[in-house]
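Z., the sequence and structure:
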Amino acid sequence: MTIRNVVFDIGNVVVPWDPRGIERKAFGSERVDDPAFRPALSGNPIWLAVNRGEHTLADAKALYIAELGLTSVEVDRLYDVLMDSMVLLEDTHDLMKDLQAAGYRLFAITDNVHEIVAHLKERHDFWPMFEAAAVSAELGVLKPDPKMYDHVIEAGSLDPGECLFFDDVPANVSGAEAVGMVARRFTDAEQARADLASLGVAF
């Protein structure tokens, strides 16, 4: 089947996502690399709840203080470093522009936080390139829940077999395949271009 739509994850695809690196910059490597350190981001139930839209970052701050023993200043620093890390991966942005110029429709499926999405929309100009986006904090579930993929399929009236999804997490790639999408693990824009070419996507 012909690929007509390209669907992008956001973290580690369009912008970086390095939770351990963010925590090292916020708290110091010695502290973060201590086996007793409890991560505030990746895998932490508080952070997962924020990604499902159950807490705002302000709500999470109070929970981090109460449950992880962080200070208010430390949580603020964590959030500042996190937001500052959201730089645009220019090679992916160039790929998106090339695809759009060639007539392909672009969409996004992202486990993400309300405040980060708002920050990305304010800081960068790529978000309007997506005709529709499934954001976990808006839908209340995380990938690979089928609801995330189905949201974009329904919003764009898409044939899933005509969609190519890029994500850096294998389980999320499998989730897309389970709903009928073609999916590839994203490593970098160069590999993505090769994957697109192998599927007959000309741009």
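The chain has a mean pLDDT of 97. The chain has two domains: 5-16+87-198, 19-84.

Let me know what you think.
H.
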